[in-house]
Amino acid sequence: MISKDYVIYSAAGIHARPATALIKLAKTYQSVISLKKGDKTVRLNSMLNILAMATQAGDTLTVLVEGPDETEAAAAIDTFFTEQLKNL
């Protein structure tokens, strides 16, 4: 299992557009990808799950990736959080 923390710098936090992009990205991998905020963990398979976390600027999310292609999936998720999230 790969685990990495990300601080959300986007002023809008994670809203519908980045949530949709995250779900599409997660579906391209066999690994199970989850987000954790505090004591709540949700899988990246439902926009409602992600939006229910109410992630705002300054929040820290932990991404958990487990499966046969976890290294590739974790790298893609890392790129999303470090480069693409600020543009959505």
From TrEMBL:
<dbReference type="Pfam" id="PF00381">
    <property type="entry name" value="PTS-HPr"/>
</dbReference>
<dbReference type="GO" id="GO:0009401">
    <property type="term" value="P:phosphoenolpyruvate-dependent sugar phosphotransferase system"/>
</dbReference>
<keyword id="KW-0598">Phosphotransferase system</keyword>
<dbReference type="InterPro" id="IPR002114">
    <property type="entry name" value="PTS_HPr_Ser_P_site"/>
</dbReference>
<keyword id="KW-0963">Cytoplasm</keyword>
<comment type="function">
    <text>General (non sugar-specific) component of the phosphoenolpyruvate-dependent sugar phosphotransferase system (sugar PTS). This major carbohydrate active-transport system catalyzes the phosphorylation of incoming sugar substrates concomitantly with their translocation across the cell membrane. The phosphoryl group from phosphoenolpyruvate (PEP) is transferred to the phosphoryl carrier protein HPr by enzyme I. Phospho-HPr then transfers it to the PTS EIIA domain.</text>
</comment>
<protein>
    <recommendedName>
        <fullName>Phosphocarrier protein HPr</fullName>
    </recommendedName>
</protein>
<dbReference type="InterPro" id="IPR035895">
    <property type="entry name" value="HPr-like_sf"/>
</dbReference>
<dbReference type="GO" id="GO:0005737">
    <property type="term" value="C:cytoplasm"/>
</dbReference>
<dbReference type="InterPro" id="IPR000032">
    <property type="entry name" value="HPr-like"/>
</dbReference>
<feature type="domain" description="HPr">
    <location>
        <begin position="1"/>
        <end position="88"/>
    </location>
</feature>
<dbReference type="InterPro" id="IPR001020">
    <property type="entry name" value="PTS_HPr_His_P_site"/>
</dbReference>
<keyword id="KW-0762">Sugar transport</keyword>
<dbReference type="InterPro" id="IPR050399">
    <property type="entry name" value="HPr"/>
</dbReference>
<keyword id="KW-0813">Transport</keyword>
